[in-house]
Fold this protein.
Amino acid sequence: MKKSSLLAKIGLIIALIIVITSCNAIKRVPKGKKLLVNNTILVDSIAPKDPRVKTLLVQQPNNRILTVPVGLHFYNLARPHRDSIYLKWMQENPNGLKRRNNILSEKQTIQLGQGLVDFNSWIKRTGEEPAILELDDITKSKERLRAWYWNQGWFNTEVTHEIIDSDKKQRAEVVYTIKKHQSYKVDSIKTRISSPLVDSLYQANTRGQLITAGEQYYTPDFNAERDRLMTLFRNNGVFYMEKEFIKFEGDTVNTKNKANIAVIIDDREIKDGDSIIKKPFLIHKISKVNVYPDYEEALAGSIPDTTRYKDINIIRYGEKKYRNFVLADAIFFHEGDIYRDIDRDRTFNRITELKSFFTPSIRFEPDPADSTGVSLIANILLTSKKKFFLKNSAETTHSNIQALGIGLNSSLVIRNLFQGSELLDINFRGSIGASSNAGNGDTRFFDLQEYGADARLSFPRLFFPIKTEKLIPKYMSPSTNLSLGGFISQTNIGLDKTSFNSILSYRWKPKPTNTSRFDLINAQYVRNLDPGDFFNVYNSTYNSLNAVAEDLNISNPHLFK
């Protein structure tokens, strides 16, 4: 009761402060300036339906709670220059400072002053500065509003503003008036693509075009179309294509509110000495694939050993740590393939999912042996993680059942167990706790005990009697997981048991955002060591709940049965 009474008094004091200061909201507004109290936006004489339009304004009025700008009033409680005021007092009142030093000591006097300064700063940070009306902010807001509607096809949008003074002193609101006029629609779509190969790719894939003739101009559609074209070209061998090369130009001169769109892709510019030359885009192919599974040793200057596996060159600078097929299965591009971003991304993701390497580096460079300039050499640079990793942790717990609990956990990770990028994770855990036995009232110290261990072995492929690559291709990141776990002992309040479980499951990702799992085996064995006490616990729990129900005057205590 005392605590609630104190909180009520504090709330009353804060409320009184707000009421007292509410008539002085412009306390920190400089002379000649005005406090912004409201923004009004009218689009063709009505309020905008889209709530995002209001967020475009650079300057917003102070936040209000029940029409009261609480944050502003709290900010006004702070002194503008608290540090300089206290320093000035110390300089102008040497006798008062001397008396204070005699009472508090010089160090405490300085700390008192610093405390006042810090408290004053806290009030400023917690409160909200007055939203002072600025003409520059109004200009920026008008530009944002005009750009917003321009991007939606209203190219002739007019935005004006009016500052209306409030009945109260030094307060004003701003009214933004927007006239959209007639919108523009896409009329025709033409192309000006310099590279013949790029132009043929574009013409062959117009079916998925995101800009439609007859639809209202909408800038996000053009951004999405640029992304579509970028993906199209980069996944069809145009290795040097970049977004900035894809441009759109709209002709609206004498078109009666119609926009004739031109898709423009110029040849790429290449620096040749001191001059810039233009070259048409080409379709690039991969001539070599080189994998460096231990690139950190290559930097040390070791002598390489090259192994040819299928069409991949595996260049090792140390001992053989990984089997050839493991590295090859993680690569989605091969000699003679057209370059594709999707193959590079899948390779990057698959190598990362192996959990045996740090972030991989995949580099493509021109093949100096090809005079036509269409061949690329792919270099995959890998750095292995440590084979063994040991982690230990400890924790303490407390609950209404367990007065004190202490737990220790150890985890051992072994990577690349069979040179196939397998991952073995072994966990050991043990805990002891002190509690009362709810079944028989036994209060033995540290009567709660649990000791356990489990092991999980993961393979970055599917082990199945039949071939599954057509159903679950490797870009879906298939994996096989074997889990074995067992509690050596668990002693609890009547819940003493031992258990063992085993799981054999398969995982894959049909989509980047979806994960599928199929459990071939999921078995668990549980043995209760003290069945009699097991039921005593629940009888005791029922009696406790029944007593609570009676104390609360619940008419139907049988609900707890």
User: Anything to note?
Assistant: The chain has a mean pLDDT of 83. The first strand starts at residue 35 and ends at 43.
